[in-house]
Amino acid sequence: MKKLLLLFAVLTFVGSLSAVTYYVDTASTGSGDGTTTDIAGIHAAWKNISEISGLVAGASVLFKRGCTWREQLTVPVSGSPGNPITFGAYGTGDKPKIYGSKQATTWTYEATNLWWYSNTPNPNPNSVWFILQNNTIKWGRQEATKGELNAEYDWWWDSGNSRIYVYTGGNGDVPGDDPDQRYTSIEIPVRTEAIDVPSKDYITIQNLELAFFYSLNTSVVSKPIYLNTGDYAIVENCLIHHSGTLGLTEGEDEPLGHGIFMLHSSGTIVRHCTIHNIARRAICLRQNESGITDNVIIEDNILYDAYHAHVDFKGFATTSGSFDNIIVRRNYIYLSDDYPADGRLKSSCAVYIASGKVERTFKITNPKIYYNITRNFVTEHIGVYFNVSGAEIYNNTCYGSKSDAPWIVGIHVKPGWNSNIKIKNNIAMNMKSGCLWIGDSNEVGSCENNCWYQDGTKGTVFASINAIAYYSGDFPAYKSATGWDTNGKWEDPKFVNAGGMIPSDYKLAFGSPCIDTGTNLGLIMDYFGTTVPKGAGYDIGADEYGSLIRARIAAGTRARIRAGATMKIK
Question: Comparing C-alpha atoms, which of 252, 29, 33 is closest to residue 126?
């Protein structure tokens, strides 16, 4: 009995150690052990990220809201099942910020609207961000010569003198156009990462804002959160923005930079995050060696304004590894109407699934793309490329093309050893090049109960199958040639506000042909959190018609998404 009591006491003591909460506050003296919110004394909060130490499974490290750190956190230890290491927030106010940048201050005036700064820790920073007085952030335009600086937010790297020049705009008065007065801040990136998780399991990252990160070339790429060969991470309620470079640097001719980068990270969940203004990929999954990355869930996020892809999972063709059961559901993914301001966008998609090249060594099996709302893309909304099998593309709503898009489709399956691709209950509308684009129909296992529609404002092709285009009056020919969509629709889905900027604009209006005309796919919740089915049957698209709030929205009530928030209407 005494031995049992001793064992219980030891376990209780170990549990109490693992449950320690530590605090980090920039106002602290940094002289304590981090175990209280005090700012002085032996138990005072830590001041700097570099002080974080002594963590064991179950520990939490909480950053004070309203504070900003310009350091990198490298996670030192793993958590364990039921006892993750958690990095989060405490207090009130804005999310704690971890910036990958240096704030440039004390600018030197050279000529009208032309100012320079020389205290740069990197060579060419490749990006400069201007934070305006209203907290709007402008991504600076990098020019090739000083003589090309002629508009506000232009900047140039003077390699001979290691200076950054900026053009401030305004009326040219001094000191009124001094960058220190005209802007809240000018941010110059110096780090590639905010949080590095190297081979550590069971890590939770929540309620943080991460911004302004550095990319140099394909070997040095920004990754604000880098999950590197560790499993069972959770990233939730985070705001990640302005990462990478858009300019032509170091011989690179494409934008470079990520938001969340996962390498060999199974069991990871990314949820309730807002990620935007990323130079290449908002959420990126990679596998570059043999083995399996599986059971990753990306859900309930707002992703927008990434130059290449917003959810991108891709294996490298020289390996025999695989992705299995990657779930992407209930995300709102879009490009803003005015993005990018410089007009250089070549391609950008919502969800990109690819094995990398045309070789058959890497496999992607059973990806699940459910109940997403996607808007306003370039190239494709949902793309499937090379050696993908068993993909389930269900109940997505895809709307619209960028006005300058050279080629854009809703759902695209590029031929290359794909098999059993299932496309059901989706809506795609107003795509420049077609709502559905299938290179080889033999790679599609089923395509049923979808609604494809063009109102003539973007394009006229409803579907392209095996290089044969089908137009408005070709629905019978399409069904006859493919055997698909016998219960599908080629008519206006009747959204509440087609072309609008918020998810509720893509709810189904009264009288929509997509109400109760879908098929049962075993799913239980639509984008807005409504249990399905609701009514006489299952609906087509990301909205299940029937919630009470819908009538108020249809009557003209509007809600606005603000950065860092996820809107769910039930």
Answer: 252
Cis peptide leading into 175, omega within 30 of 0?
Answer: yes
Picking from 47, 37, 145, the residue whose alpha carbon sits closest to that of residue 90 is 37
Beta bridge pairs of residue 276:
241, 304
Instruction: Supply the pLDDT for residue 248.
Output: 53
Closest CA to 143 of 5, 247, 22, 294: 247
Locus of tokens 């709502």: 435
What pLDDT does residue 246 have? Answer: 86
In this structure, what token pair is assigned to residue 88?
């989060």
Going by C-alpha positions, the residue among 270, 262, 218 that lies closest to residue 244 is: 218
Residues 6+ apart with CB under 8 A from 130: 137, 138, 140, 153, 166, 183, 186
Q: Which of 50-54, 400-404, 562-566 has the lowest mean pLDDT?
A: 562-566
Amino acid letter, residue 87 = F
Task: Output the CA torsion sign for 166, 169, 172, 174.
Answer: negative
Residues 117-142: tens digit of each pLDDT: 998 777 889 999 999 999 999 999 99
Contacts of residue 483, Cβ cutoff 8 Å, sequence gap at least 6: none
Alpha carbons 537 and 518: distance in angstroms, whole number: 7
Quote the Cα angle for 17-22-25, to 5°: 170
Token pair of 103 as six digits? 């704030």
What's the CA angle centered on 139, arms 149 and 278, to 5 degrees?
145
- 305-338 tens-digit pLDDT: 999 999 999 887 566 789 999 999 999 999 998 8
**C-alpha 315, offset from chain centre:** 19
Neighbour-count burial of 55, counting CB atoms closer than 10 A to its CB (0-12 exposed, 13-18 middle, 19+ buried): buried
d(CA 247, CA 434): 31
Distance, in Å, from the CA atom of 415 to the CA atom of 443, rounded to the nearest integer, reads: 7
Strands 373-377 and 332-334: parallel
Q: Which position has the token pair 């290691």? A: 162
- pLDDT tens-place string over residues 76-93: 999 999 999 999 999 999
| Model pLDDT, residue 317 | 56
Listed residue (209, 327, 214) closest to 273, CA to CA:
209
Decide: 567 and 561 in contact? Cβ < 8 Å.
yes
Type of residue numbered 114:
L
